[in-house]
């Protein structure tokens, strides 16, 4: 039996601890949903006031907070009031390192139900999400503004925290026009524009998402350096870019659909243009990778997968592109660079 994991306890104790965390995790997710950390940001609050503000049953809320406080998330004082702790602070919606949106997403009905149906996807190879909700994820978001808000904010949080690592890893200085395909609300593009005053940018996404794109990107729109374009990347993408950034796009789609998007980029790009896929590349063998669990999320939600280097090379080649370099970044993402074949 081989075991390269140094877990510092017996395998049974380790697994038992992981399995036993289910209740702990549900309590964290509900604390985020109830906005408890925000309610405590100005100091200790009594359980009666917390229950009133959240529309919950005081005695039960107390039991949940007591359990969380036993693991360092919130703390109870001698007067029975609760306050924030270092571990509770990132649950605030306005914390600098906030994981509030991430917790809202993981604790959403959609995500909880979908993971509960993992066995469906493992048995059939089909997305549990579509099986439960009767539609694809992006169509669902079009009809669920609250969930779309959480998802788009989650993408914005992720892109904002990963932007520095992505910009650091790739030399953007030669480009004049960069197009962010499926760029969400424009967080990554805004960071790239901020670091590279010599070029302009186009934010491209579905109409419902572009309609909500505001904030940092608008600074550059107002300066005439950025444009927001709504459309469908299976039909066409904006013309004339030197670089087409696709972060977390190819991984949402099966090969056939991903190739359609890549072909549209290939066709639209300027001479000597580049395609920059920003994705988590799956390492070989047993190597640890966040991508290997993200890949399960792809199995549950889409007809798609996280891909290995060889799979990206093949995908790009089938779209008339040649993979020329993969650059790891300080984040989980790598930049997969391709030119016309
Ligand atoms: C996983 S998100 C990635 C967002 C952003 N690139 C990031 O990493 O933060 C995928 C994006 O693709 C967009 N998208 C999905 N289908 C699309 C379509 N047919 N045309 C254009 N954009 C689409 C979604 O609206 C969403 O913003």
Describe the 3D structure.
With 341 residues, the protein is an alpha/beta fold. It has 2 domains: 11-92, Arc Repressor Mutant, subunit A, CATH 1.10.10.10; 159-340, 3-Layer(aba) Sandwich (Rossmann fold), CATH 3.40.50. It is 48% helix and 14% strand. The strands form 2 sheets. It has a 7-stranded mixed sheet, sandwiched between helices. The chain has a 3-stranded antiparallel sheet with strand order 1-3-2. α12 links the parallel β4 and β5. The longest helix is centred in the middle third of the chain and has 25 residues, at 145-169. The protein is globular, with a radius of gyration of 22 Å. The termini are far apart. The relative contact order is 0.08. The model has no long low-confidence stretch (mean pLDDT 96). S-adenosylmethionine (SAM) binds at residues 138, 155, 158-159, 182-184, 205-206, 209, 232-234, 247-249, 252.
